Amino acid sequence: MAVATQTLEELCINSIRFLAIDAVEKAKSGHPGLPMGAAPMAFVLWNSFLRFNPKNPKWFNRDRFVLSAGHGSMLQYALLYLTGYDSVTIEDIKQFRQWESKTPGHPENFMTAGVEVTTGPLGQGIANGVGLAMAEAHLAAKFNKPDAKIVDHYTYVILGDGCNMEGVSGEACSYAGHLGLGKLIALYDDNHISIDGSTDIAFTEDVSKRFEAYGWHVQHVAEGNTDLEGLAKAIEAAKGVTDKPSFIKVTTTIGYGSPNKANTAGVHGAALGGDEIKLTRDNLGWEYEPFVIPEDALKHWRKAVERGANLEEEWNKVFRDYKGKYSEEAAELERYLSGKLPDGWDKVLPTYTPEDKGLATRKHSETCLNKLGAVLPELIGGSADLTHSNLTELKDSKDFQKGQYQNRNVHFGVREHGMGAICNGIALDQSGLIPYGATFLIFTDYMRAAIRLSALSQAGVIWVMTHDSIGQGEDGPTHQPIETLASLRAIPNLTVIRPADGNETSGAYKVAIEKAKQNDPTLLAFTRQNVPNLAGTSIEGVAKGGYTVVDSEGTPDLILIGTGSELSLCVTAAEKLTAQGKKVRVVSLPSWELFEVQDADYKESVLPKAVTKRVSVEAAASFGWHKYIGTEGDTVSIDRFGASAPGAVALEKFGFTVDNVLAKSKALLG
Amino acid sequence: MAVATQTLEELCINSIRFLAIDAVEKAKSGHPGLPMGAAPMAFVLWNSFLRFNPKNPKWFNRDRFVLSAGHGSMLQYALLYLTGYDSVTIEDIKQFRQWESKTPGHPENFMTAGVEVTTGPLGQGIANGVGLAMAEAHLAAKFNKPDAKIVDHYTYVILGDGCNMEGVSGEACSYAGHLGLGKLIALYDDNHISIDGSTDIAFTEDVSKRFEAYGWHVQHVAEGNTDLEGLAKAIEAAKGVTDKPSFIKVTTTIGYGSPNKANTAGVHGAALGGDEIKLTRDNLGWEYEPFVIPEDALKHWRKAVERGANLEEEWNKVFRDYKGKYSEEAAELERYLSGKLPDGWDKVLPTYTPEDKGLATRKHSETCLNKLGAVLPELIGGSADLTHSNLTELKDSKDFQKGQYQNRNVHFGVREHGMGAICNGIALDQSGLIPYGATFLIFTDYMRAAIRLSALSQAGVIWVMTHDSIGQGEDGPTHQPIETLASLRAIPNLTVIRPADGNETSGAYKVAIEKAKQNDPTLLAFTRQNVPNLAGTSIEGVAKGGYTVVDSEGTPDLILIGTGSELSLCVTAAEKLTAQGKKVRVVSLPSWELFEVQDADYKESVLPKAVTKRVSVEAAASFGWHKYIGTEGDTVSIDRFGASAPGAVALEKFGFTVDNVLAKSKALLG
């Protein structure tokens, strides 16, 4: 094929392909196959449909684009470069997959403007897309007026076979169908190849039929390599269906254009190699040097800059008009977008004294959520089918349902992983919403990949986890967290807080809300069972992660360190030891992460190095506690699986009693 | 309704209902709704189809029954009691959900004979069922002869709405459809209620259509409360379809029989209460005291004992005949079932010297797997679409596919969680198979719930995890484990091993195989990148979890503790420090769990308390390491997310260098 035969469209499409081929070749690492096959659909979408402004990647009313098949990252980097984003230059593309480059192995929203969410772990992106579409639906229902549609954009996702095999995508897409999210449009790159070879070896289901079963509008573009008109018509038709999300199966050839490697797993995740690249250049009539884009193509692509500026300007006019007519709503939206909290928001958080009735911290959590929900309309979330166990309902709102998107109580169904990825999507919409997702603490295991991604991708989600120990009781070891707190504390950038009582629950929410606005997630662990309100606990104390709640005269002989429901055991044990003439300090350590970032002096003031007799008390694994108890300390902990029994029985049988704290303390004191 | 009008069948069915009602009432905890609604299908299945021997719950050729909706555990306990298992007496039922009872909150295979797998975390049971059916298919293809079908049984699963919402079930069922597992029959208790209320609020997809899309044979019994004949016909028809798994949607009423609570979430997970129980007794004509089963019903149910004895005896005859004709195969099957390993099996594990070429430990893993696969035909497994990255292919076997079940290379597809639950099912088939499942270490996050269940439910699986650090390289932080090792080490009963080289990889597999036969899982973490073979490493050392590989003369001044790819940094640093006159010991600590169970003298001999200057070196989070480095030690570790770059660059940038080990060592040595 000679270059002369290439249409402008083909030049534009081949620009994507060769940027991917050349970048992967230079890095000797990466996935050229997907960009080569998906280039036509990406061209049609970005050239004819996607509304965005390359010079303002954060323009609020932009369409959201998610490359769920994140290993094809060069597709996205090519699009960002070609359409004129400042975040990805040709030099950046030459640095593909290199240290600190703007073009890491998988799309990372925190590295590259124009990337909405971090993808790569398969299935997450499409589930994030459901969250993005839910955010749009909510904001549109809340802010739009009959004469002013200020929230009006689509979420487009390109996903692959791998995404469709992952359970998380099934969960989220089933829910998207339930919600009838008409502005969610997914393009399925049906290339029949995954890493191990043909999908025939493991994945022969009828994917389209499955999406129909979910309640999606389903189409098929059979000639996805070449049928640009068919692609455009399908997207147009998808936009026309407003009461269902759309699934467009686009049959393509992975590595399209490579004479020997197209339609093989060999082109999925490895460089083509010099010889094959030459053959591919010949085959596609591409006579340009590596990283060189023909002027015609670049000029055409770059029309996106002017188009985008116009789109944003049009929207600005609409918004100015809106602001004139609906100043209050406009001010609220502007606050949302600013990331600011309303003045005095935290004044609603209750405080308690020991005289106040002891309640489960999940009950205190319910109070906080409801008080915060009243002053923070951006709070939106719910539970994975445990609403009345997690106590996460906002009583002054109603259910977020199809056609009722203005409401804030989300029923995720028994879909923890989907919930996690959806919450990440809502947060990464960057429109100021604060999503929360709830289940039993143990079931963070089902959604761990999404929780980790919230921490990595700076998604300001609040994870509300109840039934946080063997105190959970009768449900038994399948439902009782043991190692769960440790496994979550180990995740970088995730703040885990396990409050001891009412004051500490308020403190935990204060931190969580502030962190959410700073784009950091927080995980809160609450008890099922009642706990007393303690003297000395405070909102301010929680903010420091660890603090002294009971102190001795002079240097203590012993420090008891407790969290959550076990802090009260420490306090009672300390009283008894003090009565016996011992000098005992009790430290509450609701959040290791918050404590670790305090300055050295503060940490030393709470846990003086000289005091080596220390006992930690937490109804969970001892794993990690040696950092605080040192080589001479001891733990009251549980390093085996739990057991089915009433919660109080389980706690006692496993040694979470004042007597056991006293026994371990006395053994240390000698 | 008067009792006189009850048929024998109704009496039998109501026996289940009232055992559930009364047990939950006594415990004031539990889920009566499912047993009340699913009692008819359970009766039909257990009375007319299920082939089992109550007096020998481990009879090899029994049909497997899984209650995937494990919260309805009283259904299963009622069935075990009524059909005459010794494991559940009426006294046990009265102890429902109490400390150390045989009737815990959710079915636990390790507590109650007759329970095949541990359920409760939703979706796991049906996915375990896929594994059980795969085990049957494999053993049948391997051992059956045209004149002797010694492996010939079904796997039946009852699952609910919650199971169907979970992604793990979707993954496993898609794969079951691909494999055409004709002897897997799932009964879907379609009761339209989950904890939060009607499934209308979150789950309105067409489940049957989805299963059709997966390639299952799908039926519907519309009157599941009463249509016993329809239920029987459907199960009969399902058995008749031999090339597809069967899905029978059975529409039922949760809490059937309760005048005020049937068909409400109120009966899902709480006791009915005395008044409602009285009304339910009246409504169903049940005139018996709590925990009393009418003689006629019990007598009918208990026919299962004689039926079961006959079934097993018939099979014994077939097997005796088989043994006569096919002594070799019979001996092999008997070895499988004995849990024994063939003599000298571990002699195939290779050893290495420092002169041998350094390879990635994943490459050593491939060698071990293949050598073991040749002597252990019970080894069966594969990867979640990363076969040629995980290097898990058994080269002398072929792909396990529909109609090719005798093969041992399983292609799970991009379905980590499904793979995990399937491997658990294969192990819990208790037929001696050793399943292994592989992916990148980071993606244990996707399958953590299944890994935890392997540890809890004593499933002897080998989890083969490669690309175990930031040495993974270019894929970046979404693919680079940081906190992953810590989060896995924290799981009770799971042995995690991170070998340093060829010898340690052999040692890791020796432990893993032995543990699998003892019904304990092991997780192996392997490098992507090459590592040298070190002097002093050994198979025996790995078995102890930690051991000295380089020692000083006399008491060391400093101990360097390394694992996996970082052990070689320790060895090189020690050489340099020794040359500078320091006394340095290097300890390899491939498995914390194995080290912890050594006696105190041994542990002291490796890590003497008196030596407080210690540096751990592991390309992972420091979380948990303070147990070994103490208060005066230091770590070479990474407590932030990784970054996309070539692996060697990432390792260097994050400080995993000999120089950094030396710098931290010298800082401690002063």
UniProtKB/TrEMBL annotation, chains A, B:
A single Gene Ontology CC term: cytosol
EC nos: 2.2.1.1
Molecular function terms, GO-annotated: metal ion binding; transketolase activity
Binding locations of substrate: H31, H268, R362, S389, H467, D475, H479, R528
Limits of the Transketolase-like pyrimidine-binding domain: 359-533
Record: residues binding thiamine diphosphate: H71, G120, P121, L122, G162, N191, H268, F443
Requisite cofactors: Mg(2+); thiamine diphosphate; Ca(2+); Mn(2+)
Job description of the protein: Catalyzes the transfer of a two-carbon ketol group from a ketose donor to an aldose acceptor, via a covalent intermediate with the cofactor thiamine pyrophosphate.
Protein name, per record: Transketolase
Protein's organism: Brasilonema sennae CENA114
